[in-house]
Amino acid sequence: MRIRLIIPITGLTGESIEERLSYLREIADPGTEVEAVQVEVGPPAIESEADAVLAGPDVLRLVREAERDGVDAAIIWCGGDPALAAARELVDIPVIGPGESMSALSMVLGRKPCRVVPDIPVLEMRKDLDGTVKALREQIEERIERREGDVFVLGCLALWGLGKRFRESLGVPILDGAEVSLKMAELVVKLGLRHSRIAYPRKR
Predict the structure, then answer these.
(1) DSSP-assigned letters across all residues of 160-188
(2) Where in the sequence is the domain holding 21, given as residue range(s)?
(3) Dihedral of the CA atoms 99, 101, 103, 105 (nearest 10)?
(4) Please, are residues 162 and 176 in contact by the beta-carbon 8 Å criterion?
(5) Staple 135 to which of 74, 118, 151, 168, CB 3.0 to 4.6 Å?
(6) Would you say the pTM of this structure is higher than 0.90?
């Protein structure tokens, strides 16, 4: 099985992308190959709806390219799922959005899903990871104390790899978009499923 990440921002270095791939390859099922491509034209990071729209055209180009290359599924690597519905109209392979995947799984694990993102620019989150972890922990603990959530969604893919850390220390479901989108892609491919053409009519 081949799964390709579509990186919708230009602000990640090749080294940063390889770090993400190494993490995903460690948790992928045996026989799953994980690879990545990055947009050539788009915003440095997605911080707004405008950024998501700017990323869209090259995301769609890369999704089409993934299908032509024989990839089994594509993941749009952003918690905001930019151009997700449009991508599904263009190709027959499954296109997975981390945000949507986490939202779906959160409904299985709790009754009050809560999206959390630290108030830190996307490209700064990994530069001071300890600070990011501290801010995120405080936010989750505050929401728990106020009974505002019983399952928590890490709303940005810059937070990859932190789900397990928080689950173990806080004892509540914490959904990491990197993990969830990879496992959703593997599941859909293994079950031989694809997106409904009733929901997403094919654009020729």
Answers:
(1) TT-HHHHHHHH-S-EE-HHHHHHHHHHHH
(2) 2-97+179-190
(3) -150
(4) yes
(5) 118
(6) yes
